[in-house]
Amino acid sequence: MRFVILRSALLACLFAMVCPAQQPLASAKLVEFIKSSVEQKLPDKDVAAYLAQVRMTDKLDDKVVEDLRRMGAGPKTVAALTKLADQSAKLAAAPPKPVASAPVYVPPPPPSQADQEKILAEIRDYALNYAKSLPNFICLQLTRRMVDAHFQPGSKGAWTPSDRIVEKLSYFEQKEKYEPITVNDNSMIGKTWESLGGSISRGEFGSLLRDVFEPQTDAIMVWDHWGTLRKKLCYVFRYAVLQRNSHYSVDYEKKEQAVPGYHGLVYVEKGLNVITRLTIEPDMPEGFPVQEIHQVVDYDFVDISGQPHLLPLYSSVQSRAGRYGSRNEIEFRKYQKYAADATIKFDTSDEATLPDDQKAEDPPVAPKKP
User: Fold this and answer.
1) Is residue 358 part of a domain?
2) Distance CA 264, CA 268 (A)
3) Per-residue pLDDT band at 200 (split at 50, 70, 90)
4) Signed CA dihedral, 227, 231, 233, 234: sign only
5) pTM of this prediction?
6) CATH code of 176's domain
7) pLDDT digit string (tens) for 150-184?
8) Residue 9 is part of which domain span?
9) Burial 89-101 (b: 16+ CB within 10 A, else e)
10) Where is pLDDT greater, at 264 or 133?
11) Pairing of strands 232-241, 220-229
12) Within a domain: 346
């Protein structure tokens, strides 16, 4: 009974508002009323009677009437709405609602020069001692190789899967050992990684970091921007290594080799001051078959025997030789403490461990108001 009384009270109020004379009503308010009447299951004839006393102040569009019909407005209500639409056909449409502008992101100012130097000194020391800080471990390295036979420079590429390589990676006394397990699910036990052919990258476990930061490299390093990687605020520095100081080697089909200079970005997580991403773009010499290389290595904390260690999580290497494009996407899985006689069941499923939305820098977001 209470619900019926409330509905009757609502209609009584509406009729009291409009019965003395036709009352003006905007289309937005009309839509709100019809939606409410449907939700409260008001009698169709009573809603139609109310609408008969209404005069529109702006155009009621036929599409709005149809939307309300689909929402559940009764036939008598729809007939009354159609009549109002006809009567208001020559009226101006309601002005659009003002769209609230998105808050503008204003990045914080860069760290002071003194703070930048302090941060760089800290991560330089970290990078030079990174390999020594790692425990002995084993993990699984999964490499998906793709090609684009008609790659257009500057494009995202139309990549076709080429093969899928699973390797056991052992890290013992600061040395890496790669043992192929399968290629496209075909056993490679007993063969060397050099026999795989195609594009292969190495160095994610310390040599890339060391080469950028060691004193002999004399890398030029300057502030670039604030970044957000996997929801963590990062200092981002731009660096460049001149060719005469470079140790970055590119081998083409075991016939030609180049040691180019290179440049890229270093992402440093604010607070922890650890490197979470390194990008490398070699400045390939003119005439060398490979003319473009873009490499990214992402690092994150991994638990090994109950202790967190910052280790490679994901890496990608994209290159171009003429119009032939090659792309490797590499994941590192199943980190475990090293044991020479350990029996390990490796997960070789194709499920990616790092979602695509975590492979790109997060877009800047304006800080929330306090």
Assistant:
1) no
2) 13
3) low
4) negative
5) 0.68
6) 2.50.20
7) 888 878 888 998 888 888 888 888 888 888 888 88
8) 2-87
9) eeeeeeeeeeeee
10) 264
11) antiparallel
12) no
